[in-house]
Write a structure and sequence with these properties.
The complex is a heterodimer of chains A (356) and B (308). By secondary structure, chain A is mostly helical. Chain A has 13 helices and 4 strands. In chain A, strand 2 and strand 3 form a beta hairpin. Chain B is 70% helix and 1% strand. Chain B has a single domain, classed as ABC transporter involved in vitamin B12 uptake, BtuC. Classes of the chains: A mainly alpha (356), B mainly alpha (308). At the A-B interface, helix 6, helix 11 and helix 13 of A face helix 3, helix 4, helix 10 and helix 12 of B.
């Protein structure tokens, strides 16, 4: 008789992590298939429709990239903080405040020529997100107040502020929906000619590459990793924890604020009442599934955006749009469970003695 | 007078709907497992109860389904965090997102359908007739009356019983319990499952007592307020009750003030509970008071026998 036993693994390669994740994502899809079936739809038909609409046409892919842009920035922002073990759950609010700052610049800021205007707009959005994150970072750094709760509560406040501004003082005239006036022509991000994709996409890729280099080749990036792995070791090595908390959360919030920038200047052209639309929370799932690797964040974001877009197409069949959120949650739960097999392996023992 | 009565009784109704989740979270955190998914589990409780109510018109059955839904989520969460020793923050977020999505998905058919079945307000004979106090305390629904007993019972359990002592040890030093021959894993499973069932009851307060409908995302941040109140109350059910009442009062005050001061934007009132949570949370958990915080030492730390 063979006995099964768990044994700790020391390391796992990138490839095995990838295969493992794919396997468990597939399991999650099967699991959701059962739920979809239980509600009375044919899961294969639903999945088939979703997949073909989102990923099998150039229009679908273009749309997925477009709606993936804010997700990418939220995912990048969240992963910067999570790398240091800071639970920034506030990307949603930081995104909203980024958009608010952007709209304020477009409304009241000086008229700058050409690319300068766009740059200034981006800086404003970054600052907005960063400042909002600092509201949580300062209590965390100085008084050790748990950041997950403060960032989260600030989300609600930011969203209330956003809807107040979009429905009140900044509301575009003659509109029923809560949104601001169309952005000025010179502030809007142009499309790449021929490809019909916003120039924001290459910009986000550059940001991801910069972050990748930052983690890998700079001392500050290394410090973040050390603090994330072991706070005690970091303290012992004399790393300034307070400074890092402030900087990392500001960077994290700033990146989420830039999500407001790409959405405003690159896609919608208006700041809208419910603009973040859960991108901040989805960003957390994306960051986790990407193992906080900035380049993987880009890919996962596009896949998730495709998933979200495709949920609109099956709504015609009567499937609720929440199918996308449900699938994201299920994927996350099952991948977390699957991570166990990154840390342990199952060994089978022969009867009597131990094999190893 | 009528204003005061409606303020206080409204505060109690609000407080009770976050306290079930708060007490559940307290037990879970006392056992060393932080559950960030409160909101998602509340929504699942709210939707499962409402679906059963619409289809069966049986309140008791609906309530049992709510408990069962919470318990199933609790078992999954315990499996992830206790057995698989996964990161509790990430698992909590996953439960939150899954619960929010699944509840919206399953609730599609009952959104906008009237169940006409809820925990009605019952006036207690004699006590309900008391001037002032009667309408505030004794003309409430069953879930509120149950809470009058749950708070002292949980205080007694945590601080006065042997099991309560084990529970506190479970969150402070699970290795010591293990050495004493106690099954740390089974105990954590039990408390996490109990906690989630209570969170689901909070959801039922929202869809089957305070209001009687279902709409996607209807708990509107109550789960998070419950979560924040637990740390704010130093993991003590009595302080939790005081905090929840304070919150209920602020939020009812907001909606009442709106009638008297229409010039102030309503957004200020809706933001008030969140601002108050942040301020209270910083004041109560910040380390500028030199005293030691009551946070269970083993909170968020999976128990691993091998690395003891």
């Amino acid at each position: 008789m063979r006995k099964l036993r768990l044994e700790k693994k020391s390391t796992s390669s990138g490839l095995s992590i990838l295969l493992n994740s794919l396997l468990f994502v597939a399991l999650a899809l099967v699991f959701c298939g059962f739920i979809i079936g239980a509600v009375g739809f044919n899961p294969l038909e639903v999945y088939g429709k979703m997949f073909s609409k989102a990923f099998l046409s150039s229009r679908g892919i273009r749309k997925a990239i477009e709606s993936g842009l804010p997700l990418m920035l939220c995912g990048l922002g969240v992963s910067v903080a999570f790398r240091m073990n800071l639970n920034n759950i506030g990307a949603e609010g930081q995104y909203a405040v980024g958009a608010i700052f952007g709209a304020a610049f477009a409304l009241y800021g000086p008229k700058l020529p050409g690319i300068l205007g766009i740059l200034a707009l981006a800086v404003c959005c970054f600052t907005g997100g960063a400042l909002w994150a600092l509201l949580s970072a300062a209590p965390k750094a100085f008084w050790d107040v748990d950041e997950s709760i403060t960032t989260l509560m600030l989300n609600y406040i930011a969203l209330i502020l956003l809807s107040y501004l979009c429905l009140g003082p900044w509301k575009a005239k003659g509109q029923n929906v809560g949104q601001t006036e169309k952005i000025a022509e010179n502030l809007a991000l142009p499309e790449i000619s021929g490809l019909k994709i916003s120039t924001a996409f290459p910009v986000v890729i550059v940001i991801a590459l910069l972050l990748f280099g930052f983690y890998k080749y700079t001392a500050s990036g290394y410090q973040i990793n050390v603090i994330g792995k072991s706070l005690t070791a970091a303290k012992y090595a004399g790393i300034n924890i307070k400074k890092n908390i402030i900087l990392v959360l500001a960077l994290s919030g700033g990146l989420a604020g830039l999500a407001g920038f790409v959405q405003y200047a690159g896609i919608t052209g208006r700041v809208q009442e419910n603009m973040p639309n859960n991108a901040g929370y989805t960003g957390i799932v994306i960051a986790y599934l990407s193992r906080f690797n900035p380049l993987v964040v880009i890919i996962v974001s596009i896949l998730f955006a495709g998933l979200q877009n495709s949920s609109a197409t099956v709504q015609v069949m009567g499937v609720p749009a929440q199918i996308a959120t449900m699938m994201q949650g299920a994927i996350m739960i099952i991948v977390i469970a699957g991570d166990f097999f990154q840390r342990y392996k199952i060994v089978s023992d022969k009867k009597g003695g131990r094999a190893s | 007078m009528n204003l005061l009565i409606s303020l206080f009784s409204g505060a109690i109704v609000y407080a009770v709907s976050v306290m079930y989740a708060g007490i559940g979270e307290t037990f879970s955190e006392r056992a060393g497992v932080m559950n960030l998914g409160v909101e998602g589990i509340m929504l699942m409780g709210a939707v499962s109860g409402y679906i059963t109510a619409v289809n069966t018109h049986n309140l008791l059955l609906s309530f049992l389904v709510v408990l069962l839904t919470g318990a199933v989520f609790g078992l999954v969460f315990a499996f992830l965090t206790v057995t698989l020793q996964a990161d509790q923050t990430v698992c909590g977020m996953a439960m939150l997102i899954f619960g929010t999505g699944l509840s919206g998905f399953l609730g599609k058919d009952v959104a906008g359908v009237a169940a006409n079945l809820k925990f009605e307000n019952i006036s207690i004979p004699l006590l309900g007739k008391l001037p002032f106090l009667g309408p505030i305390f004794f003309q409430q629904n069953l879930l509120v009356y149950a809470m009058y007993f749950i708070v002292p019972a949980s205080l007694f359990y945590i601080y006065k019983t042997k099991q309560g002592l084990y529970l506190r040890a479970l969150g402070e030093n699970p290795a010591a319990l293990d050495s004493a021959g106690m099954n740390v894993f089974a105990m954590r499973y039990a408390y996490v499952t109990f906690g989630c069932a209570m969170m689901a009851v909070s959801g039922a307060c929202v869809s089957l007592a305070n209001t009687n409908f279902w709409s996607s995302g209807m708990t509107a941040g109550k789960g998070w307020i419950a979560f924040a109140l637990v740390a704010f109350s130093s993991w003590n059910p009595f302080k939790l009750m005081m905090g929840a009442l304070l919150f209920g009062f602020i939020s009812c005050l907001g909606s009442n003030l709106q009638i008297y001061l229409p010039s102030v934007p309503t957004e200020i009132y809706s933001a008030l509970p969140y601002i108050a949570t942040i301020v209270a949370f910083i004041l109560t958990t910040g380390n500028f008071r030199k005293s030691h915080t009551a946070q269970p030492a083993a909170l968020c730390k999976p128990y691993d026998r091998e690395s003891r």
